[in-house]
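During the reporting period the student researcher (J.K.) took over the structure-prediction task from the postdoctoral fellow and processed the backlog of single-chain submissions. One of the processed entries is reproduced below for the supervisory committee.
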Amino acid sequence: MSVHSEIKKVTTETLRKMKFDKEKITMLTAYDFTTAKMVDAGGIDAVLIGDSAANVMAGFETTLPITLDQMIYHAQSVVRGTNRALVVADLPFGTYQSNPEKALESAVRMMKEGGAHAVKIEGGKEISKSIKKIINAGIPVMGHLGLTPQSIYKFGTYKVRAKDEAEAEKLIADAQILEELGCFAIVLEKIPADLAKKVSESISIPTIGIGAGPDCDGQVLVYHDMVGMNQGFSPKFLRRYLDLYTEITGAVAQYVKDVKNVEFPNETESY
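J.K. obtained the following structure tokens:
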């Protein structure tokens, strides 16, 4: 029997056990109550309140503009709609990089006000003091290596990271540092599949891949991309399970037509 079918509430320890038992971990983003409720009911193991809310919910070009207050609002909404999955929330840009004290303050607010079960932050050795400060306070931390969207202006591109030997070696070293610091899992974004496999085998904590091949311990996608609501984003790693953009716009068009033609509401839909 799988770990997935045995548990009633997913915790950080559950994810570690799933890696040990070689059961793949599933993760999707959610930013609101209704979506969280559906994703949770579908059996997802972990829900990520990603700072990608800046893109898909607010229409910004990057994840940088979203604030901690806004992320806390999204977290509150998602937590109310989640019964089983582990809820992880991103700490947004500027809330943890500058100093460990600010990082801890941000993480405490996300847990206390947002109700999240854990926080996710981007980076390796450079932010080790902030990670240590947060973990020492009893707050679970999920790391994030590879393509880190909060550093997009530094990279200058969304292309695959760690293709050269030096960056690949640093990523492996950073993953080991994150494990030593006490992170319970690491997201690996848009890196070569063979490197992701190597990292996953070199550490005892789970890796969650997005554009990092099949050998990570789990996978994560942005919900709006996965169900086809976001039409302008088609990376190689994305599999669309629905085409909701077409379905929804079609339904709206039919509603407009029915109202214009006085076909809605009809007698059975009237009091």
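The committee noted the following: The CA atoms of residues 176 and 202 lie 8 Å apart.
J.K. will present the remaining backlog at the next meeting.
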